């Protein structure tokens, strides 16, 4: 072979290391420090401190357990929702799925099903509902926003057909205790343990496994992910199924927590979930975000609402505050990114070539 | 060909320099465009042609030097300013609104209004008559009311030229307009360009086809590595002279093709067909062999590669990889069988631009880089560092977004990402498009070396010298069919081009 010397694929270590330009010393990595999700997490801390210090009854065990109990359904559904949004999709039917699961639970209880079986059945129904969403999105290629607006209405309607206007409340006491009770004398509800387990699992999957990497790649550039051999459709389908399943679980927990199975339970929950996820800095266009951010978003919204209730802020005003936060959450990361971009362009010696489809050799010239 | 006596230049550059970060795209370049003259801009990919055009068109502002309009310095704040000054650019792939009519495209943003209308309503009739008048001036038959969607690239270019005419264009810049045209369409385009020139317009023409430069232009300016090499009359030059000015070195170093041991068949396509895209494509690629797939843009080469890799499905035929049949439409199966595809469009298909270098490099090997289901960041970083070193990647940090790299280095990341899968068959689609000459030579050396180790390489390329310099065998496609198979010894620009344009079936 004539090319045995100085080939590009030389053994590692035989070549000078000089080709890697190291970052200039003294360059401020402002962008790495000021991340939106850390900002939100800090805000949560600030709001908590304000609550403990300045608002009467906020720090009481009973209030804290209310706060967690009222937030836990949103927090749970936010976990798979974060994964979906990272992959560039969204599921608006989650609130209706919580309601459907609750209605199903009531109806089956009335029909004298054993409680364990009917909970498993509710979870399965959730998975099937998610499968339908995912199938319509991935196999028929419909936009998830449109599909899940449709199933939002359909699942809620189904819930009403199943249970009508009744409320079922006579679930077994030990299950109701699990739904509303606290661990010993602490303020932590039993259901929080379940949530913590799910949270850890979700964090590991999204940030430390090939699946998580694939989700980010799909959200950032679906085509490149597909070209890299990632099974885009299958993975998205799995995420929709997971979202349906967790929503149904949240429906079971909701029903036990409030000791009431109704078709209109968790109406509008999808908006709280999506607001929290976006507030946590997860990019609605996909490909960017952290689970920690989404959790912080949920916490911030939950704590703020609790504080406003304690301070006798009217429900209408609370809605205005939540809406304003949502707009800020969508705007904030974008503005931050733009500022970072400008700073980088000014500082960096590396050019970012202008993408122009019409000029094939632009990158080479740049 | 009469050489007009030039007056003062309509549009000129004086000592223009332009840098992107540390990359100096243009250095001290001067250029004179005269009324009534067609001027060719020659140079290899990455020589600075695009930057120069964009400077003239007001897209880029020069860091140094001046742009002169009728001898007066001007500073175009944007493409709009350049257009108002009478500078129009026709790109290789026209940028029309597909759902609007031809006439609406021509008059976009300045539609004629009905004179008596308070509501300033658009006067469609006037718009259509004016468009028809422009087309008859160009000698083309196009229906002004037809939608732009479905027009051939040649017709789309005519719409762009009509738009330029309606703007009283004095300088017409054409960036590789003939790349996707048939010979008949090229002739029509040249007739129009010549007519415009004789009416007093200055024409700047970019083409990689030297015979077109000699057929159309009076003057030629050559760029190399961002610098001006020469600006001279075409009549004083031979094609060989021009090639020497463009390349400036021995071609051998750019195409270091080593003799390789040709082994067993690694990839075979048998009567592969995708309805309306390509038909009955059969070929083999052997171990150690570099097979080039040549043809014009739109001949179906990329589509064949996509189908083989499983990104698209095929309707008939089969693909055999290493002795076993490949299922249709499954990139995962293709990868498992040892196939890798370096796609044509590295921004859209090859890379996740916002993700880091290491993440991009790891994307094809998520399984291998994880341990007990968890990603190993250390393994991911080590592999990235290893490949960065092997391919001499220029970067600051492996955690930087690939968007921060230059085009050539981005292409290296795509190559590394696929080589990391240790493929047995590598398909590369336009592996050196838009990257600088130095990186280009490195990529070629890499391909040659990999073939020497027994890799089977299928290389799609529109770069003829690359095809001739690198391939053991050249397959040529024309309008969805494989029309020729030419051995290395018989492959010349003429044999390949005549097959690619459908003139000869070998």
Tell me about this structure.
The complex is a heterodimer of chains A (366) and B (506). Chain A contains 15 helices and no strands. Chain A has helices spanning 30-33, 36-54, 61-86, 94-110, 115-138, 144-163, 173-180, 190-208, 210-220, 222-227, 232-258, 269-279, 291-310, 315-347, 362-365. In chain B, a hairpin with a 2-residue loop joins strand 21 and strand 22. The longest helix of chain B is centred in the middle third of the chain and has 16 residues, at 183-198. The chains are: A mainly alpha (366), B alpha/beta (506). At the A-B interface, helix 9, helix 10 and helix 15 of A face helix 1, helix 10, helix 11, strand 18 and helix 13 of B. Chain B: This is Ribose import ATP-binding protein RbsA 1. Chain B: It is found in: Cell membrane. Chain B: InterPro entries: AAA+_ATPase, ABC_carbohydrate_import_ATPase, ABC_transporter-like_ATP-bd, ABC_transporter-like_CS, P-loop_NTPase. Chain B: Keywords: ATP-binding, Cell membrane, Membrane, Nucleotide-binding, Repeat, Sugar transport, Translocase, Transport.
């Amino acid at each position: 072979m004539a090319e045995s010397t100085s080939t590009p694929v030389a053994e590692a270590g035989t070549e000078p290391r000089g080709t890697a330009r190291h970052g200039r010393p003294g360059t401020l990595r402002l962008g790495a420090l000021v991340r939106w999700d850390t900002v939100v997490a800090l805000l949560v801390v600030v709001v908590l401190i304000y609550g403990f210090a300045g608002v009467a009854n906020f720090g009481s065990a009973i209030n804290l357990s209310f706060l967690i109990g009222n937030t836990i359904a949103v927090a749970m559904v936010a976990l798979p929702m974060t994964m979906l949004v990272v992959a560039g999709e969204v599921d608006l039917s989650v609130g209706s799925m919580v309601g459907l699961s609750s209605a199903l639970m009531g109806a089956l209880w009335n029909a004298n099903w054993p409680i364990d079986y009917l909970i498993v059945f509710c979870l399965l129904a959730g998975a099937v509902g998610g499968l339908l969403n995912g199938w319509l999105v991935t196999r028929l290629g419909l936009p998830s926003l449109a599909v899940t607006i449709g199933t939002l209405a359909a699942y809620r309607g189904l819930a009403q057909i199943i249970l009508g206007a009744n409320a079922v409340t006579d679930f077994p006491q030990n299950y109701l205790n699990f739904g509303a009770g606290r661990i010993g004398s602490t303020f932590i509800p039993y259901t929080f343990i379940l949530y913590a387990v799910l949270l850890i699992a979700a964090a590991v999957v999204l940030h430390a496994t090939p699946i998580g990497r694939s989700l980010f790649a799909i959200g950032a550039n679906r085509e490149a992910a597909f070209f890299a051999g990632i099974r885009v459709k299958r993975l998205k389908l799995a995420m929709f199924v997971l979202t349906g399943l967790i929503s149904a679980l949240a429906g079971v927990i909701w029903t036990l927590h409030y000791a009431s199975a109704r078709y209109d339970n968790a109406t509008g929950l999808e908006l709280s979930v999506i607001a929290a996820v976006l507030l946590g800095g997860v990019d609605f266009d996909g490909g960017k975000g952290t689970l920690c951010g989404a959790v912080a978003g949920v916490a911030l919204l939950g704590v703020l609402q609790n504080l406003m209730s304690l301070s006798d802020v009217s429900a209408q005003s609370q809605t205005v505050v939540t809406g304003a936060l949502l707009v800020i959450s969508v705007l904030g990361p974008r503005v931050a990114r733009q500022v970072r971009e400008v700073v980088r362009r000014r500082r960096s010696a590396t050019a970012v070539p202008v993408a122009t489809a019409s000029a094939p050799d632009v990158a080479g010239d740049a | 060909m009469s050489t007009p006596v030039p007056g003062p230049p309509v549009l000129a550059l004086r000592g223009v320099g332009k840098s992107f970060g540390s990359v100096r795209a243009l250095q001290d370049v001067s250029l004179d465009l005269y009324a009534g003259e067609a001027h060719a801009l020659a140079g290899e990919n990455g020589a600075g042609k695009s930057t120069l055009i964009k400077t003239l068109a007001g897209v880029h502002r020069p860091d140094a030097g001046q742009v002169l309009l009728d001898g007066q310095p001007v500073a175009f704040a944007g493409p709009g300013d350049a257009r108002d000054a009478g500078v129009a650019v026709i790109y290789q792939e026209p940028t029309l609104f597909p759902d609007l009519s031809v006439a609406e495209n021509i008059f976009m943003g300045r539609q004629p209004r009905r004179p008596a209308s308070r509501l300033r309503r658009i006067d469609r009739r006037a718009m259509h008559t004016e468009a028809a008048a422009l087309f008859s001036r160009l000698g083309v038959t196009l229906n002004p009311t037809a939608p732009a969607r479905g027009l051939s690239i040649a017709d789309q270019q005519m719409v762009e030229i009509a738009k330029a005419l309606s703007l009283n264009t004095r300088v017409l810049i054409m960036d590789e307009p003939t790349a996707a045209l048939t010979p008949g369409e090229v002739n029509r385009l040249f007739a129009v360009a010549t007519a415009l020139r004789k009416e007093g317009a200055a024409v700047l023409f970019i083409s990689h086809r030297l015979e077109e430069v000699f057929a159309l232009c009076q003057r030629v300016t050559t760029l190399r590595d961002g610098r001006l090499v020469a600006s001279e009359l075409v009549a004083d030059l031979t094609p060989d002279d021009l090639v020497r000015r463009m390349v400036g070195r021995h071609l051998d170093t750019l195409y270091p093709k080593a003799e390789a041991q040709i082994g067993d068949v690694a990839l075979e396509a048998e009567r592969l067909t995708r309805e309306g895209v390509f038909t009955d494509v059969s070929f083999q690629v052997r171990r150690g062999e570099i097979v080039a797939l040549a043809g014009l843009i739109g001949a179906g080469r990329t589509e064949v590669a996509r189908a083989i890799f499983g990104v698209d499905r095929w309707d008939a035929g089969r693909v055999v990889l290493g002795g076993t049949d490949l299922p249709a439409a499954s990139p995962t199966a293709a990868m498992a069988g040892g196939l890798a595809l370096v796609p044509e469009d590295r921004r859209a298909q090859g890379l996740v631009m916002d993700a880091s270098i290491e993440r991009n490099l790891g994307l094809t090997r998520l399984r291998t880089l994880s341990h007990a289901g968890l990603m190993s960041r250390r393994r991911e970083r080590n592999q990235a560092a290893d490949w960065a070193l092997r391919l001499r990647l220029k970067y600051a940090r492996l955690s930087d977004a690939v968007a921060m790299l230059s085009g050539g280095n981005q292409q290296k990341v795509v190559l590394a990402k696929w080589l990391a899968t240790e493929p047995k068959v590598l398909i590369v689609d336009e592996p050196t498009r838009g990257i600088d000459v130095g990186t280009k030579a490195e990529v070629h050396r890499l391909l040659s070396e990999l073939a020497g180790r027994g890799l089977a390489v299928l290389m799609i390329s529109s770069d003829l010298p690359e095809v001739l310099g690198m391939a053991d065998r050249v397959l040529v496609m024309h309008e969805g069919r494989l029309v020729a198979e030419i051995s290395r010894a018989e492959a010349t620009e003429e044999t390949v081009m005549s097959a690619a344009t459908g003139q000869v079936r070998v």
